[in-house]
Amino acid sequence: MKRKERVPPKQTLFTYFKPIQTPPYKEKGSRDDRKDQENEEPKIKMEFETTPTRIKQQPVETDSDEDDMIGRTKTLSGRIKRKSSMSVEERSKVNKRKRSSRFLESDEEEDNSSLIEEAWPEADDVTPMKQPKAQFLTPRSCSSTPKVLLTTPTNNSLPVTPSGGVSVGCGLDKIGTFLHDTLDFIKDANRRDKNKVLFGDPNHNPRTLLVPQLFLNKLTPAMRQWWNIKSDNYDTILFFKVGKFYELYHMDAEVAVKELKIVFMKGDFAHAGFPEKAFGKYSQTLIQRGYRIARVEQTETPQMMENRIKKMASTPMKFDRVVSRELCSLVSKGSRTIGFFEGEEPETDSAYLLSIKENIGSCSGTQFGVCFIDTCIGTFHVGQFEDDRQLSRLRTLLAHYHPVEVILERGNLSYRTSQLVSQVLSTALKDTLSPGSEFWDATRTLKYLIEEGYFEQNTVHPDLQKMISDEDSLGMSPSPGYELALSSFGACLWTLKRSLIDKEILQLNQFQEFVPVDQLLVFDESLVSGEGVSPDSASFNVSMTTCTQSPNQKMVLDGITLYNLDVIDNSGSGIGTLLQRIDNASTSFGRRLLKVWLTAPLCNPAGIRERQEAVTELVNKPHLLPEIREILKSLPDLERLLRRIVVLGSKVRSESHPDSRAILYETITYNKKKIKDFLSLLEGLDKTTQIVELFSSQSLASKLLINLVTLQTEQGQFPDIKDQLQYFKAAFDHKIAKERGSIIPLPGVNEEYDQSLEEIRQVEEELEQYLLKQRKRLNCKNISYFGTGRNRYQLEVPATVQVPDDYEIKSQRKGFLRYVTPETEELKARLTTGEETKETVLQGTVRDLFHSFGEYFSLWDGAINCVSVLDVLVSMATYSSGEEVMCVPQVTASEFPYLDIKDGRHPCVIQTFTGGEFIPNDIVINPDRAAGGKMCTLVTGPNMGGKSTLMRQTGLIVILAQMGSYVPASSCSLSPVDRIFTRLGASDRIMYGESTFYVEVSETNLILQHSTPHSLVLLDELGTGVAPV
């Protein structure tokens, strides 16, 4: 049984691909008609009536002028009835001429007076359309390869997936190919980038495509726009705006049909689309699956286009007659910001964009410059460091700040680094940039910052200032030792600039120098306990190099250790990890900080004790914990919301960003979302002050806890935000703002708005007085005002009344004439001016309010930081009070390292077994805390006896202890551990040519090179990779 086909709607670029094409006129039942149907392709079933039926068009503003110009139409899906008086011979000639070209524009203008239009479904209906019939029901073969682009059976290429291959949509077509499959210039054998470099060449740029000019000249104006944008962004999925809808074409449509579960629209080319309001839903789906998406908006209406053409000095060409469109955003996993266009917020974890610059020719070893940023937070981490042969520092960075997108310099990465990136970041999106032009050097980076006015608008952040040479007055030279760091920063800036979010991120002015955790060692004699120890002794120098730490020193946990001990799981599940076990955080920003604390525990005993005291005080106040957690759980992601509001209030963005020129049809919806986010932020910040008030009635002993919940005016760290918060809460009516999607300033908040309201009120009073005066003048009480918009305030007077000469007739109705007078015209002009002033003020009210709010960024950010630390402390207190056997570990600095754990339990296993089933274990290393003590413990036992569990348990307890938490043991004391090494399990890396034995030897070599007397080394059955003789 045949299903009804759906023919493409009017508000699409379907009309731009083909010349005028009217449905074939055939009389039912004729022999010629049946013969033609046997030879022709399947068509929509049609019947004919005496006159064509025009389907009522929805009142949607679209590129109607373009449609009329190009002369294309669409018909409503289903059965459309039509009749014609044309003869069979005439219709046959018309059909042949119509089928002669289905893609390129015809040189002859054809009549489209009898064409039938179709309207899209209501905008609220964003569900996929029904599947087309007949010629679209043959599935295409789908395959993928590890190459950058896929060669299908028809040798067509599609956008790249995260793994480097291609996800091919199952195209449905009558002959197995779409029109773009026949284009030679996109086939792998012929495809070139804009520099004319052939695909497969090491210097080929996969982001661009060379489109022949002859091909472009034959296209319709709008389709030429699409190909021009696509040629600059060949690695992205274009969401091309046409009226109220986003359209996808060719290879992009194939991906959309597969990933978004929408269907193709009828035609000879791949074509799909959806309403504007569904953008957030569909764009997030593609981004999560590793695609880059580009949003192309109309920046002109058809009327604006006509006005532009009229002002042109020269004769307009064919390609001038199309509304302007601009690329407004380019988003991927690593460049995603949460704005009013996006749908639901992404995952809670940070999504880092990382750029790596390597100095291969360094004499002292491999040097790296790195820059990484979570674009939802906006803090640049920039640094430069030297690494060993095993790239241990780079491995640790990738484990701690697992990126979702990596930027590399083409041709400037060693084989070993390339292997590491491929191995550790197999699921990350990778982008290679050309040296110099895209991957900027340090000088080019600093020059860009100067040209963009960054140094004029902001006080240079101290961490960035130290990277700029003081000897260069222009500020365009890097300081020694930061050349690679600034170059990697430049690569990040280029990527953000391409995504059109560079200015909004830079304006936050958030920078932090990245220093590897094992590079922060300093000498601090005050941390040493004991008498008779001379700083000049050799033993003291060796041990103190790693044992005595600054307050910022952290324990080093590299990627191998994090994996072997199941501390975190960067794959996303996190099941069975230590992070999952202790994660009781109530807020998203607190959960992110908890992960940072867990992967980089403290080494400073004083800092550890501060955290322990705070956790202990919270544990001892069980009545307080539920109240705090209840408030914390009600908080939104304040950290991300704050950045979003500050960015939306940017005056630079509002003036220069293409979004400021975009023609949007869901403006009220977007405004409601902005206001909803702003109100959510205000309410969240208000609740943070409630936490301070909650603790104000408590007697606290913990220094850390006191600082977090005490106002700065009272020598604490929490900023006093009450006055500023009250100002923004009272600046507008919240209820009206939610309902209307606009902010109406309350009296006294905006002087210009108040003046415009007063002017409108005054004019309206004068109009009423004038009406009363005219009734009295003409001695008629039936005179009233009539009209709306431009025709309002016409005096409607009975036709029998004699009017003065200054009355000018404008319109009439039965028994009444309508007049205007010089006075009414003058008053109406004043009223219009006042209303325009009011609307102008209201249009900028949201941005102005957000901009004013952003001026207090440091205050809001300070409050959020205090709450995030408190949330982590509450999380650790919840974990510490949830087990039967828990203790406060004693961490004491000592020249001779030691470890003493009594009745220790595995933190993750004790939640699975009952207390009686899990046997606790003791671990004692150097119990005498003296030189020459027992520094090694050998564990033996049968298989499945728990040897590996004991080793992992020891490492996890040490991590928890130095993190500041309680540990699952009856007692625990230790000296600070500067690094944990693990060699557990046996596995090879066959894809990288590394056998099991090679992996064991490499990891053991890493331990021998970097371990110190204060390192904890866990070796499990070393040598199992060697086959017995």
Automatic annotation (TrEMBL):
Biased composition, class Basic and acidic residues, residue ranges: 25-48
Residue ranges constituting the DNA mismatch repair proteins mutS family domain according to the UniProt record: 934-1029
GO molecular function: ATP binding; ATP-dependent DNA damage sensor activity; mismatched DNA binding
A GO BP annotation: mismatch repair
GO cellular component terms listed in the entry, alphabetical order: MutSalpha complex
Polar residues bias spans: 50-61
Domain DNA mismatch repair protein MutS core, first and last residues per copy: 573-912
Region (Disordered): 1-114
InterPro entries per record: DNA_mismatch_repair_MutS-lik_N (IPR007695), DNA_mismatch_repair_MutS/MSH (IPR017261), DNA_mismatch_repair_MutS_C (IPR000432), DNA_mismatch_repair_MutS_clamp (IPR007861), DNA_mismatch_repair_MutS_core (IPR007696), DNA_mismatch_repair_MutS_N (IPR016151), DNA_mismatch_repair_MutS_sf (IPR036187), DNA_mmatch_repair_MutS_con_dom (IPR007860)
Role of this protein: Component of the post-replicative DNA mismatch repair system (MMR).
Protein name: DNA mismatch repair protein
UniProt source species: Amphimedon queenslandica (Sponge)
